[in-house]
Specification:
The chain is of the alpha/beta class. About 40% of the residues lie in helices and about 15% in strands. It has a seven-stranded mixed β-sheet with strand order 18-17-16-19-20-22-21, sandwiched between helices. Strands 29-28-27-30-31-33-32 form a seven-stranded mixed β-sheet. A five-stranded antiparallel β-sheet has the order 2-3-4-7-6, with helices on both faces. Helix 16 crosses helix 17, helix 26 packs across helix 27 and helix 37 runs parallel beside helix 39. The longest helix has 22 residues. It is globular, with a radius of gyration of 35 Å.
C-alpha cells in the first residue's frame, strides 16, 4: 500500500503481502541479462532509479544505456498480480501487473502519449519491461505557459480516448506523467483496466476520480505543498496550474497593447508597456490600461439580461476584441449563457486568454478564436455581440458590417472611440453609430453610459423599447424586461410576502403558522432581489446570520438538529446577498464547509439525524435526491466567495445522485410533485438538461387539459407548490405548451391576499387549508421566465378563450381544438367557388370589392390560377371601378401590387391608383373612412416598385393624422388599424384593435346571423393583431371567432363556410397572418447549422449527387442550415425562401433569397432543377396545393426532395403538435406524389439525425414527370 493514503479501492491482500516479500529482490544477474537482451549488447550503464514512494507499485526500476540507446527498465515478480479492484468490479484480476502494463502499452501503440516499448521478457520468475527513457514531470517548468496549457490539453484528449475505448488508468498524477520533448506521456499502466462507464467523460473516474461507488484513490500527500485529491485529471490540472503560476506575470507582460501592436490602427497612440485589460484572478491582479474595477461590466450584464428576456433561452455571446478574456469570462459566469466566443486578431491575446482560462479554471463554454475582420466569414452564432473599444480598429468597417448582417443578433453593445479620424466614410462617431443601426436593421441605438476612464459612449443596438437599457440600469436588479411587480398576481404575491414576514425575521411558514422558516427565507432572497425588494432581502439575510448554528449549519423551524437541505437553501440566499452585504461572506463559507465536510467521500449529502422529519407515512420517506437542490447554491457560493473547490464537489455529488437515485420515475410512491420538481429544476440548473427533460416528459404525459398535474402519479388532488414548480421547469426548458396551462391552473388557486394553498382537491394532505410561503416564491420565479407577451391573460393564445354566450353555453375553445388543416381546405374550396362566380358575374361595386379582397388570399392559399383569373376580370373592368369608394381603391391597390399580378398585367393600373391616392394628401383620416387603408397600400406599392417617393409620402401623411373616423367594428376598421400600425407604429394600431376587442366583448350572440357576423369580425381582429405582431391578442380573438363559428362548441361541420365566403375569407386571412407572426416569434429559436454527418443532410446530398450546377431552391429554409452545407459542398446556384424576410440575413454569400411560402412561391414555371422541402411540409395546411406549386416551379425532370416526420412517432411525441402541423405516413405520401405528376426515385423511412435513428424522420425524393 502507499503510505499516508486512505484507501478508496479494494486491494488484494495476498498480492500486498507478496509485494513486501519481493520488494527490491530482483536478482542482479537477471537484471543484467534482460538489459543485454533489450539493448542488443551488455549495458554500459545500469543505474537503479529510486521509486517515488515505498512500496509504490512494487517494481524495481533501472536506467540502462549502451552507446546512444537508453531505456527505462522495470522488474517485478510474476506473482505480483494487479493489486486493486474497483468497488463495482466482480473480483481481482489474475494478470501479473507488469504483463498488464505491457498489454496496454502494445495495444495503445503507436500513440505518442504512451512510452514506446523496447521489449518484454521473463527470466526465471521475474518479468522485465523496457520502454523508452523520458524526461520527468519537472521538465514542465521549462515550458512556457501556453506550452503547459497545450500539454495538459493533449493529455486530456488522450485520456478521453482511453475512456472511449473503455479503459481506466486509475493512477493519473504528476509522478506518472513524463515528456518526450513537448509531448506529455502517461506511464505506469500496471493498474489500468477495461471498465466502460455509462457517465459522460467529464464525470468519469480518470477525470474526477469518483464515479458512483467507485473511487481511484487519493494522491499521497507526503511532500509539503502537494495538491491533495484523487489521482485523476481534475487534480492534475491544479498541479499544472501551480507550475504555471510563477511565470504568468512575465508572460502576460509581453502582451502589451500600444501603437507597436500589429492590429492597432491608431498611429497616434503613445507607447505603453502595460497590458490592455486588467487581469483579475482568484490569487492575482495585474493592473492594465483599463480599470481593475471595470464599470462597463454592468452594461455587459444588462445586455445579457436583455437578450435573455427576449429569447428566453441560453445565449450565444461573441466578445469581439476579447483581449485577455476578462469580459468573456464575465459573460461565461452569467447564468444564462450557453457559449461565449472571444474573437481577437492578435494571436498573442488568444493564447494569453486561453492560458488565463486554464489557470482560472474558467467555464468550459468560453473559448477564444483568432479572427480578423475581412480575413474569413463571420461564422459564429451570435445572440449578443460585444464590441468594447474595438470597432475603431476594424480596417474595412463596411465589409465587417456586411458579415454581421448575415447573423440574427438580438443585441450589440459597443464602446466607441470618439475621434473623427477613425470614421473617414461617415465623418463622425454619431454618424457611424447610425450607419451601424441602419445596416444591421436595429430599431434603436441607445446611448446608455460613458466609460469611466476614456469617456467613450457605450451604445446598445436592439429592437426593444426605446429606453430598455436605461430601464434596466435604473432598476438595479436582474429583473427580466417586461416583468414588473405591477402585475396583479405578482403584486398580490409580493404583498403576501411582506405581510407574512415578522419584523426583523424571515418569512413565515404559512398564514396559520407565523413561525419564520429559515429554509424558505434563504431561497426567497434571490427571488426578492430579482423583484427589486433589496431591503427585505437584506433583512432576511441578517436574521439568518443571527440563527446560524455554531458548526455553520442551519436547522428547521422548531427543530434543533441540522439539515443539509435547509442549509443548502440558505446558502442560495447568502450567496445572492453577499455582493450587497459583505458580512454575509463568512457565514456563507461556514455553511458551505459544513455541507461538504458532512458529506460522504463520494459526495452524498448528510441525511437528517431523525428521518421522521422526512416521513411520508405509508408512502415511505422523501427521496434524498432532493439534495440536488443544494448544489446550485454551492456553485453560486463559489462565485460569490471567489473560492475554488466547490465546483469539483458539486460534480462529484451530482454524479453520485445520478448513479444511485431515482430521478425521473414519477410513479414511485414517495414522489410528491413538489419534491420531484426540486429534483428536475436542480438537474436543469446543474446542466443535466437531458435527464431533466426526460423527467418532465413523465409529468407531461399526466397533465390534464386544464393544466393540472397530480400531486402523486396515483392521486387526484393538486400540490400547489409542485404545480407551480412544474410550470417553472417547463419554462426553463422552453416548453410553453405545458408550462402556461400549469401556471394558469395555479393562478386560479391564488387567494385574494396573494397566497397559494398547500393543496386542494379530494384527499389533499399537503398542508390543506394553509397558504404556504414557498409556492409564492416559485410563482414569482416563474413570472420572471415569461416573455412580455406571456402575461397570463385568461384568454391567451394556445389555451382558449373563455366564452360566455348567454343563451348558448360555449365551451372554452383553444387553438388546439380547431381542426385547422381540414378547415383550411374547406375555406379554400369555398373561396375558389366564390372566385369563379365573381369572374362570370356583374362588375358592380360589391362584386369588385369582394374580388379585390379575394385575390391576395387566393394567392396565399396556393390558388394561383384562380387569383390571376379574378385579377384579369378586375383589370377588364378597371375603368368602371375608379373613384367608387376609398376601400375599393385600397383593395384594387392591394391586388395590382401583388408580384404575380404585376408580372401578368404590368404596372399601369397600379400607377393610376397610386396617382389617385396621392391626390388625397390634403384630406383627413378623421373625416373620411378608408384613407389610412389607401395610404397604407400606397406605402406597400412603393416598396413593391422601389418607388421611395410613394413610401415617404404615405408616412408623412400618416404622421399628420391624429384619429380615425368613427366606424363600426368590422373588417374595414381592422384594416384601418393595421394601416395605422404600418405607417405610424405598431402600438398605435394595436391600441385601436384592443379598444375594438373590448367593445365586442366575449359574449357570442345566440342568433345565427349575428353570431356569424361576430365570428367574421373576431377573425379579422385576429388577422389585424397577428399582422402587427401581437400573438396574444391574435390568439384570443381567433379562439373567440372559432368559438362563434362552431356555435360555442368544439365541433365545426364540413359545410361551416357554405353560408357565405366572408367567414372563409376572414379565416384564411387570419391563418396566413398567424403563420407569419409565429415565424417571427420563433425564428430566434431556429437552428442555424446541421452536422455534416447528419442522416437528413446525407439524404439531401445523395438525392442531388452529381448536380452541383443545378438551380436549387431550399423552400422554408429558416436559417439556411441545409443550404449552407450545400454551398460548402460546391453547389453554385442556390436560392433560399421563407415566409418572412428575417431569414435573408442568414443566407450564404452568392445565394439568392426571396420571401414566399410553399403555397405561394412567386416563381415562374420551371424556375428550378431541384426543390428541397426539409421539415417544411409538416407546417403546410394544404398538402395537395403545396405539391402542385412545387411541381409548377420545377423544370421537367426536376427533383423534389422531402425530409419530414413519420406520423407513426406522433403518439409518443411529448406534448403533441400544434394544430397547423401535420406528420405523414411516408408511403402514403409517396402514393400522393405519384398521383400528382411525380415519379418517386428514393424512399428512406428512417433517417438518422443528431446521432440517433429512431424512426422520427423519413426522406423521399421524386422526379417531375413531363407534362406531355
Amino acid at each position: 500500500m502507499r503510505e499516508g493514503v486512505e484507501e478508496k479501492m479494494r486491494f488484494h491482500q495476498t498480492v500486498l503481502d507478496l509485494k513486501e516479500r519481493y520488494l527490491d529482490r530482483t536478482p542482479p544477474e537477471l537484471v543484467r541479462r534482460a538489459a543485454t537482451e533489450f539493448l542488443g549488447q551488455p549495458p554500459e550503464s545500469l543505474r537503479e532509479v529510486p521509486r517515488q514512494w515505498t512500496p509504490g507499485g512494487g517494481s524495481q526500476n533501472f536506467l540502462i544505456r549502451a552507446g546512444s540507446v537508453q531505456y527505462f527498465l522495470k522488474a517485478k515478480h510474476k506473482s505480483l498480480l494487479v493489486e486493486s479492484a474497483l468497488e463495482s468490479e466482480p473480483g481481482f484480476s489474475q494478470t501479473p501487473s507488469l504483463e498488464n502494463e505491457y498489454n496496454f502499452l502494445t495495444t495503445l501503440a503507436p500513440s505518442p502519449h504512451v512510452p514506446a516499448v523496447a521489449g518484454f521478457a521473463q527470466h526465471g520468475d521475474w518479468l522485465f519491461l523496457a520502454t523508452e527513457a523520458l524526461r520527468p514531470f519537472d521538465a514542465l517548468r521549462e515550458f512556457s505557459p501556453p506550452q503547459m496549457v497545450e500539454a495538459f490539453a493533449r493529455l486530456k484528449d488522450f485520456v478521453r480516448g482511453l475512456y472511449e475505448k473503455g479503459i481506466v488508468h486509475t493512477d493519473i498524477h504528476e509522478k506518472n506523467v513524463c515528456f518526450r520533448g513537448l509531448t506529455p506521456v502517461l506511464i505506469d499502466f500496471e493498474e489500468a483496466r477495461y471498465f466502460p462507464q455509462a457517465v459522460p467523460f467529464e464525470q468519469s473516474l480518470d477525470m474526477v476520480g469518483v464515479c458512483g461507488g467507485d473511487h481511484v484513490g487519493d494522491f499521497p500527500v507526503l511532500e509539503k505543498g502537494a495538491v491533495p485529491g484523487p489521482t485523476c485529471l481534475a487534480r492534475l490540472k491544479k498541479v499544472f496550474a501551480s507550475a504555471l503560476r510563477p511565470g504568468l506575470p512575465a508572460y502576460l507582460a509581453q502582451c502589451n497593447f500600444d501603437c507597436t501592436s500589429g492590429y492597432n490602427l491608431d498611429a497616434e497612440q503613445q507607447p505603453d508597456e502595460r497590458i490592455y485589460q486588467s487581469v483579475i484572478l482568484h490569487d492575482m491582479t495585474i493592473a492594465g490600461q483599463r480599470p481593475v474595477e471595470d464599470a462597463r461590466l454592468v452594461q455587459v450584464r444588462h445586455a445579457l439580461e436583455y437578450a435573455h428576456s427576449v429569447l428566453g433561452r441560453p445565449l450565444d455571446v461573441v466578445d469581439l476584441g476579447s483581449n485577455m478574456g476578462m469580459v468573456s469570462f464575465f459573460c461565461g459566469d452569467f447564468p444564462h449563457t450557453r457559449r461565449v466566443t472571444g474573437l481577437e486578431a492578435d494571436a498573442r491575446y488568444v493564447e494569453a486568454a486561453r492560458v488565463l482560462a486554464f489557470y482560472g479554471d474558467r467555464p468550459s463554454g468560453v473559448d477564444f478564436v483568432r479572427y480578423m475582420t475581412g480575413s474569413a466569414p463571420y461564422a459564429w452564432a451570435t445572440d449578443v455581440l460585444l464590441m468594447l473599444s474595438v470597432y475603431h480598429h476594424v480596417a474595412d468597417k463596411d465589409a465587417f458590417l456586411d458579415e454581421l448582417s448575415t447573423r440574427e443578433i438580438t443585441c450589440i453593445l459597443g464602446e466607441f472611440a470618439t475621434q473623427e479620424r477613425y470614421y473617414p466614410q461617415r465623418g463622425s462617431v454619431a454618424a457611424e453609430i447610425e450607419h451601424i443601426r441602419k445596416t444591421l436593421d436595429f430599431r434603436h441605438a441607445e446611448y446608455i453610459a460613458l466609460s469611466a476612464d476614456y469617456q467613450r459612449p457605450l451604445v446598445a443596438f436592439h429592437n426593444g423599447d426605446a429606453k430598455a437599457f436605461r430601464t434596466l440600469a435604473a432598476a438595479g436588479s436582474v429583473r427580466k424586461a417586461g416583468i414588473t411587480p405591477g402585475g396583479a398576481e405578482s403584486r398580490r404575491a409580493l404583498a403576501w410576502v411582506r405581510a407574512h414576514s415578522p419584523q426583523g425575521q424571515g418569512v413565515s411558514v404559512s398564514n396559520r403558522q407565523p413561525t419564520p422558516y429559515p429554509e424558505v427565507t434563504g431561497y426567497f432572497i434571490p427571488t426578492l432581489l430579482q423583484w427589486g425588494e433589496k431591503d427585505l432581502a437584506v433583512r432576511y439575510a441578517r436574521w439568518l446570520m443571527s440563527i446560524q448554528n455554531a458548526d455553520g449549519s442551519f436547522s428547521g423551524p422548531g427543530i434543533a438538529s441540522p439539515f443539509a437541505f435547509d442549509t443548502g437553501q440558505i446558502i442560495r440566499g447568502l450567496a445572492a446577498i453577499t455582493p450587497l452585504l459583505p458580512e454575509a461572506a463568512r457565514p456563507l463559507e461556514r455553511a458551505c464547509r459544513w455541507i461538504m465536510d458532512t458529506a460522504s467521500p463520494e459526495g452524498r449529502l448528510a441525511l437528517p439525524e431523525d428521518m421522521g422529519a422526512w416521513s411520508l407515512g405509508t408512502r415511505g420517506h422523501v427521496n434524498e435526491a432532493i439534495h440536488l437542490y443544494v448544489l446550485p447554491g454551492l456553485l453560486a457560493a463559489g462565485k460569490a466567495l471567489n473560492t475554488g473547490g466547490f465546483d469539483a464537489f458539486v460534480r462529484k455529488s451530482l454524479a453520485w445522485y445520478i448513479a444511485h437515485c431515482n430521478l425521473t420515475n414519477f410513479l414511485a410512491p414517495n414522489m410528491l410533485l413538489h419534491f420531484y420538481c426540486y429534483i428536475q429544476e436542480a438537474l436543469f440548473d446543474l446542466g443535466a438538461v437531458d435527464i431533466c427533460r426526460q423527467g418532465m416528459r413523465e409529468l407531461a404525459e399526466r397533465q390534464a387539459e386544464n393544466g393540472m398535474v397530480p400531486a402523486y402519479a396515483n392521486a387526484a388532488w393538486i400540490c400547489t407548490p409542485g404545480l407551480i414548480q412544474a410550470g417553472l421547469v417547463w419554462l426553463k426548458l422552453g416548453d410553453r405548451a405545458h408550462a402556461l396551462p400549469a401556471l394558469r391552473c395555479a393562478q386560479s388557486l391564488q387567494t385574494a391576499d396573494g397566497g397559494f394553498p398547500g393543496s386542494v382537491g379530494e384527499g389533499a394532505d399537503y398542508f390543506p387549508g394553509e397558504e404556504l410561503s414557498w409556492p409564492v416564491k416559485f410563482w414569482l420565479d416563474a413570472m420572471t421566465w415569461l416573455s412580455p407577451d406571456e402575461k397570463m391573460p385568461a384568454n391567451a393564445a394556445g389555451t382558449g378563450a373563455a366564452v360566455d354566450t348567454g343563451n348558448v353555453r360555449a365551451e372554452n375553445i383553444r387553438e388546439e381544438d380547431v381542426p385547422l388543416v381540414a378547415l383550411a381546405g374547406a375555406a379554400a374550396s369555398r373561396l375558389e367557388e366564390d372566385a369563379r362566380s365573381l369572374a362570370s358575374g356583374p362588375a358592380d361595386t360589391p362584386c369588385m370589392e369582394q374580388a379585390a379582397r379575394l385575390v391576395p388570399v387566393l394567392l396565399d392559399r396556393g390558388r394561383r390560377q384562380e387569383a390571376l383569373d379574378l385579377a384579369k376580370w378586375l383589370a377588364k373592368n378597371f375603368s368602371s371601378a375608379q373613384g367608387k369608394n376609398l376601400f375599393l381603391t385600397a383593395g384594387l391597390l392591394r391586388v395590382f401590387r401583388q408580384p404575380e399580378v404585376l408580372a401578368a398585367h404590368g404596372d399601369g393600373h397600379l400607377k393610376q391608383l397610386c396617382a389617385t391616392v396621392l391626390s388625397l394628401q390634403r384630406r383627413s383620416a378623421e373625416q373620411e373612412p378608408g384613407l389610412f387603408c389607401c395610404f397604407g397600400e400606397l406605402h406597400q406599392a412603393g416598396q413593391a416598385l422601389d418607388h421611395n417617393a410613394w413610401t415617404d409620402c404615405a408616412r408623412h401623411w400618416a404622421s399628420l393624422q391624429s384619429a380615425l373616423a368613427d366606424q363600426r367594428a368590422g373588417e374595414a376598421l381592422v384594416r384601418e388599424a393595421a394601416a395605422v400600425g404600418l405607417l405610424q407604429k405598431p402600438e398605435n394600431g394595436l391600441a385601436l384593435l384592443a379598444r375594438m376587442a373590448e367593445s365586442m366583448g366575449a359574449e357570442i350572440p345566440a342568433d345565427p346571423e349575428p353570431r356569424a357576423k361576430y365570428a367574421e369580425i373576431a377573425l379579422w381582429l385576429a388577422w389585424g393583431a397577428w399582422s402587427l405582431g401581437d400573438d396574444v391578442l391574435g390568439g384570443a380573438a381567433y379562439c373567440l371567432g372559432m368559438g362563434a363559428l362552431g356555435n360555442g362548441r368544439r365541433q365545426w361541420p364540413k359545410n361551416v363556410f357554405q353560408g357565405g365566403a366572408s367567414a372563409a375569407l376572414a379565416f384564411a386571412s387570419a391563418v396566413s397572418a398567424m403563420q407569419r407572426c409565429r415565424f417571427v416569434r420563433f425564428f430566434p429559436q431556429f437552428l442555424d447549422d446541421i452536422a455534416d454527418d447528419d442522416g437528413r443532410l446525407a439524404f439531401v446530398r445523395q438525392s442531388l449527387q452529381g448536380r452541383e450546377q443545378a438551380r436549387v431552391l431550399d423552400m422554408g429554409t429558416g436559417k439556411g442550415r441545409y443550404l449552407r452545407r450545400l454551398h460548402y459542398g460546391g453547389f453554385a446556384n442556390l436560392t433560399g425562401q421563407d415566409v418572412h424576410p428575417a431569414f435573408a440575413r442568414f443566407m450564404p454569400k452568392r445565394a439568392s433569397a426571396r420571401v414566399g411560402t410553399v403555397l405561394r412561391s412567386g416563381w415562374d414555371d420551371g424556375s428550378f432543377d431541384a426543390v428541397l422541402l426539409c421539415e417544411v411540409l409538416e407546417h403546410c395546411v394544404d398538402l395537395h396545393a403545396a405539391l402542385g406549386e412545387m411541381r409548377r416551379i420545377l423544370a421537367d425532370g426536376g427533383t423534389l426532395v422531402i425530409v419530414d416526420k413519420n406520423v407513426q412517432r406522433l403518439a409518443s411525441w411529448p406534448g403533441g403538435i400544434p394544430p397547423w402541423e401535420q406528420w405523414f405516413d411516408c408511403r402514403e405520401l409517396a402514393r400522393i406524389l405519384a398521383g400528382s405528376g411525380f415519379e418517386v426515385t428514393a424512399l428512406d423511412p428512417d433517417l438518422g439525425y443528431e446521432n440517433r435513428r429512431d424512426g422520427l424522420f423519413f426522406g423521399l425524393a421524386a422526379r417531375k414527370r413531363s407534362a406531355a
